[in-house]
Design goal:
Helices cover about 25% and strands about 25% of the residues. The protein contains 19 helices and 33 strands. This is Xanthine dehydrogenase family protein molybdopterin-binding subunit.
């Protein structure tokens, strides 16, 4: 019989020091292969868009063609009469009193009612027996709009006569913002920045613009909703947080949560873009209305409207320093455009403000960050979450300050680098390693790549490989006008959910004997979005339970929440939960052994016992019994919650508070070659040094760092969603016009990994996924500035910014 205590909870911050060693093959510290890796590279992996159900229908969403307008009428008659159409739904067909959803603020309508607030907002749904039938029927729906004034920037949002994007706000932020079109405001004030400025020998200021970036995951939004016999629904979907989806979906359907059963399907990337709902509620509504399974898959055009993006930002910074380079003060104002709905904007504001100073020790600061409501596309979570925009600005400032002081830019950073024990502007003390100066030393000390790598010599003389030049295969130059530049940057990112959020995860671990071998099964609701969590969970189980056979149960809502696969938190928090539950299972196995076999050897009562190689052994290596002999036909099944140390909300006036649980650091050196005549850029190398605490899977760690670096490269030189400033309509919703780095754009990315343990974290690990996305962007910009002498205060850098044309 299985022993299965349900979701016991351990005190927050319970120590997670390793107790089992790492002797089991495939345990932590090894580069074990991903179970889904081969399937993905061979094209055999089943993504959510591949799902199929007998007799299923296809769902389609009709979206608004304007950004801000009143809906005066909707005529669905012709669409409903189309052969093959089973249902057409509008706002009036929603079954429950709850008709809005949202991560924190429930301000997003399931279907537009009365007005639309952004280009591409969902207005109606169609279910039909073929996807093309559904699309054609949706095109027959007639909607009459009356245009409203469009809010597109801070000036139009906060003007005295500004149209309110959301009238009658009642959320808890409204009492703390100076205008209803501001979602949230967070100041951080420490010391006296004005007085400190008077002591500065040099002051530099700068205005910076960060473009709207898309997560650009390759797997489009998709899912399959299947009505169940009990009146509920089963939803198979690609998402980042099953239980958050469930909390938002069930009230809109008018169902209790236990009647909405969710299972994770194959996820083709996320990067924050799947934290918010997309097609989940829509598919469920159509399935429940028709009584048939309904599949929805966005095409690429619709995907650009179906998820949030990275907040574009305008940032004003001021830094002061003494003549020897010590920072005296920092002031900044950060304006983030959250678009039509709140999404994660409040939390992004908290990150942007609390991390705005970067990885530097500055005693006197005056920081303000706000997020706007506008009629631009909604913006929310994306890798780096508010810290990316700030890092771009403060690192440009450090280069500007170094130039004004005639100092080496790396030496200036090292002189002011924070370290363990540094007091942050929020009043929180850094209580784990913060090797900022060392990371900078490492990237600077790395040998530079050879000059003019496009040249090669042969018997007939020298030849040019245009692939190594700016412009690549377009053959725009053979080296004429090409100038090399080198730039550096370092960033500061928090790990995990912050500001007092109850950040926990749940893991169920089962140990049993199958065919004479002990087998562990790990069941969590963690969304595997490509980060490799399923690999690490198996490694943890092998390490803690001493078994070679580990099964990872599909993620679903039949186990407690694992939180979101975001904020670089899953290995820390869900990994911590798996480790904690494994420890509980191990202790239960040893209890069973003592009960059954304790009389056969005194070591059962006196020695420290471990599980290794499928056996119970003493710490001296003596084998007492096999796990199979201990368990026999008994199974141990334990589900427990695990929490990291608690955080606290930032003070709404001063920004003081222990808001974050952990910090991560990465530094980059970019080497670029720029065709100064045509404005074309080739990034030759983008070296990174990062402290990861403990590399549980070194190969996966390297992949995460290189992936984050590449995403930062993209926003530096090519990625931006373009929105018409007059109409707020998206201009480039396709991968034809929204460019992302390909293999030809991606440079060599050498990685230098430090492992300085954080004693508060499981195995001493540190969240790694986001930090490299911060500093790669400003490093590339710094290198282009170094090559051209231009200021370049906007991302992405386009050819016309370099040529001035």
């Amino acid at each position: 019989m299985a022993q299965h205590p349900r979701a016991a909870s351990v005190p927050a911050g319970t120590p997670t020091k390793i107790t089992q060693g790492s002797k089991s093959p495939g345990g932590i510290g090894e580069s074990t292969l991903r179970p889904d890796g081969t399937l993905k590279v061979t094209g055999e992996f089943a993504y959510s868009s591949d799902m199929w159900h007998e007799d299923m229908l296809w769902g389609h969403t009709l979206r608004s063609t304007v950004a801000h307008a009143e809906i005066t009428s909707i005529d669905i008659g012709e669409a409903l009469a189309t052969p093959g159409v089973y249902a057409v739904l509008t706002y009036d067909d929603l079954p429950a009193e709850t008709k809005n959803y949202g991560l924190e603020i429930q301000d997003t309508p399931v279907l537009a009612h009365g007005k639309v607030r952004h280009h591409g907002e969902p207005v109606a749904l169609v279910a039909a027996d073929h996807p093309e039938t559904a699309r054609r029927a949706a095109a027959k729906i007639r909607i009459a709009y009356t245009d409203l004034p469009v809010i597109t920037d801070e000036a139009s949002a906060t003007a005295p006569d500004a149209v309110l994007v959301h009238e009658g706000r009642t959320d808890h932020h409204i009492g703390h913002v100076p205008h209803p079109n501001i979602v949230h405001r967070q100041p951080v004030v420490r010391g006296d920045a004005d007085a400190a400025a008077a002591r500065a020998d040099v002051i530099v200021t700068g205005d910076y613009v960060f473009g709207m970036q898309d997560q650009a995951f390759l797997g489009p939004e998709s899912g399959l909703a299947v009505p169940s016999e009990d009146g509920g629904v089963e939803l198979y979907v690609a998402t980042q947080w099953l239980h958050s989806d469930l909390r938002q979906i069930a009230p809109v359907l008018g169902l209790p949560e236990d009647k909405v059963r969710m299972t994770l399907s194959g996820v083709g990337g996320a990067f924050g873009g799947r934290e918010d709902l997309s097609m989940q509620i829509h598919a469920c509504l159509l399935a429940l209305r028709t009584g048939k399974p309904v599949k929805m898959v966005y095409n690429r055009f619709e995907s650009f409207f179906g998820h949030v993006h990275r907040h574009p930002a305008k940032l004003h910074y001021e830094h002061g320093a003494t003549k020897d380079g010590k920072l005296t003060h920092m002031k900044c104002r950060i304006v983030l455009d959250g678009g039509a709905y709140a999404s994660a904007s409040p939390a992004v504001v908290g990150n942007a403000s609390s991390l705005a100073v970067g990885p530097y020790a500055v005693e006197d600061v005056d920081i303000e960050a706000i997020a706007l409501y506008s009629n631009n596309p909604p913006c929310g979570a994306m890798r780096g979450f508010g810290a990316v925009q700030a890092c771009f600005a403060y690192e440009a400032q450090m280069d500007k300050l170094a130039a004004a002081l005639d100092m080496d830019p790396v030496e200036l950073r090292q002189l002011n680098a924070m370290e363990q024990g540094t007091l942050l502007p929020t009043g929180q003390r850094v209580d784990s390693p913060a090797p900022v100066a060392e990371l900078l030393r490492r990237v600077k000390a790395r040998p530079l790549p050879p000059e003019q790598q496009w040249l090669s010599a042969d018997a007939e003389g020298s030849s040019v490989d245009v692939r190594a030049l700016p412009g690549g295969l377009s053959n725009t130059t053979h080296g004429e006008g090409v100038v090399r530049g080198v730039g550096y940057a370092v960033g500061l990112k928090n790990v995990g959910f912050s500001e007092g959020f109850d950040d926990y995860s749940t893991a169920r671990v089962r140990m049993e004997v199958i065919n004479g071998e002990p087998v562990a099964t790990v069941h969590t609701a963690m969304a595997e979005v490509g980060q490799g969590g399923v690999t690490v969970h198996a490694q943890i189980a092998r390490t803690e339970l001493g078994v070679s056979q580990v099964t990872i149960h599909p993620a679903d809502t039949q186990v407690g929440s694992a939180g979101s696969t975001s904020a670089s938190r899953q290995t820390y928090v869900t990994g911590g939960a798996v480790k904690n539950s494994c420890e509980a299972v191990r202790e239960r196995v040893l209890e069973i052994g003592r009960r059954r076999l304790g009389t056969y050897h005194p070591a059962w009562a006196t020695a420290e016992l471990l599980l290794e190689g499928g056996k119970v052994v003493t710490d001296g290596g003596e084998v007492l019994a096999s796990i199979a002999d201990v368990l026999q036909d008994e199974a141990v099944d334990i589900e427990q919650e695990w929490r990291h140390r608690p955080t606290e909300a930032f003070d709404l006036r001063t920004g003081q508070g222990n808001g974050h649980v952990q910090y991560s650091f990465a530094a980059h050196r970019a080497v670029v070659e720029v065709d100064t005549e045509l404005g074309l850029v080739k990034v030759i190398e983008l070296a990174c040094a990062q402290d990861v605490g403990k590399a549980l899977n070194p190969l996966s760690v390297q992949g995460q760092i290189q992936g984050g670096t590449t995403q930062g490269l993209g926003v530096a030189v090519m990625e931006e969603i373009l929105v018409d400033p007059k109409t707020a309509k998206v201009r480039n919703p396709s991968f034809t016009d929204y460019l992302i780095p390909t293999i030809l754009d991606t440079p060599t990315i050498p990685v230098d990994v430090l492992e300085l343990a954080d004693d508060h974290a499981p195995y001493g690990l540190r969240g790694i996924g986001e930090a490299p996305t911060l500093s790669s962007t400003p490093a590339v910009l710094a290198a282009i500035r170094n090559a051209t002498g231009l200021e370049l205060n906007k991302t992405p850098v386009r050819p016309e910014h370099i040529t001035g044309t």
